[in-house]
Amino acid sequence: MAPEADPVPQEPQAKPEILDAPELVTALGKRELIDRVVESSGIKKKAAKPVVEAMLRELGDALSRGDTLNLQPFGKGIVKTRKVLENAEVIELRLRRSHLAMAAAAAAEAGDTADGADDASDPLAEAAE
């Protein structure tokens, strides 16, 4: 009989940090979202409002269909449950954000880039005013 091999020691899995303190919970409304988009992008509010509204409509429609969202640095969202009520729809979504994507978003918000590249390498065109 062959000698029994020692099991390979496994590193303990890091448990995710759960942020559930009441002081951390805030609600972001459409007006504040539009204001933040205007501030971070530099486009005029008149141009940002229809884009934000269209994006919210498309995200809502995608979630209603049960689509998986993969929108980095926002994250990857998977519809876990969906229930249609008489006057509403309840969607339970699991959202996963990678630390790398969150760091890149934070760097972009601070005006830096995650890899040190300049803004000329950004594949997206500048917004028209």
Structure description:
This protein has three helices and three strands, in the order ααβββα. By secondary structure, it is an alpha+beta fold.
Rg value? 21 Å
Strand order of the largest sheet: 1-2-3
The main pleated sheet reads as: 3 strands, antiparallel
Q: Count of DSSP helices?
A: 3
Label the structural class: alpha+beta
Order of helices and strands: HHEEEH
Residue stretches low in confidence (pLDDT < 50, at least 5 long) are 113-121
Shape: globular
What is the averaged pLDDT score?
A: 80
Q: What is the subunit arrangement here? A: single chain
What percent of the residues sit in helical stretches (DSSP H or I)?
25-40%
Number of E-state strands: 3
Strand content: 15-25%
Keyphrases for this structure?
single chain, 129 residues, three-stranded antiparallel β-sheet
Gist of the model:
By secondary structure, the chain is an alpha+beta fold.
Secondary-structure topology with pairs:
Elements: H1 30-41, H2 45-65, E1 69-71, E2 75-84, E3 89-96, H3 99-109
Antiparallel strand pairs: 1-2, 2-3
Helix pairs in contact: 1-2
